[in-house]
Write a structure and sequence with these properties.
Elements lengths: L15 H14 L6 H8 L3 H13 L3 E6 L2 E6 L1 H21 L2 H4 L6
Antiparallel strand pairs: 1-2
């Protein structure tokens, strides 16, 4: 889902929840040492826009911040992981609901 991909190979507009999940996934990848520029590259977002998302995730308790070499680093919290688990489960349901009826028809063997 990173960089605007939804995991199925097709591009689509990212919703706000997709962006939050992307930021959390990128931060999780760095195991507590995610600097803002690394998250920016991984999420495909400019740093100034990303800071707003990070601030919101910190306020909601989905991310935590620490300092490493005098600079802030971020890590996902247990609550953030819970958000991701729920997000991916819901994405699975939405993808099923968005399938066209022709996608669900069983193939006929002759």
């Amino acid at each position: 889902m990173l960089n605007g991909r939804d995991g199925t190979g097709s591009s689509r507009r990212r919703e706000v929840t997709d962006l939050y999940a992307t930021v959390l996934e990128v931060v999780k990848h760095y195991h507590g040492a995610a600097r803002i520029t690394r998250v920016s590259y991984g999420a495909g977002m400019p740093v100034d826009r990303l800071r707003n998302f990070v601030d919101r995730l910190l306020a909601l308790g989905l991310l935590k911040s620490d300092e490493l070499d005098g600079r802030p680093v971020y890590d996902i919290t247990a609550r953030g992981q819970e958000f991701l688990d729920t997000y991916w489960k819901m994405r699975g349901y939405v993808e099923v609901l968005e399938r066209t009826p022709s996608d669900e028809r069983p193939s006929r063997h002759r």
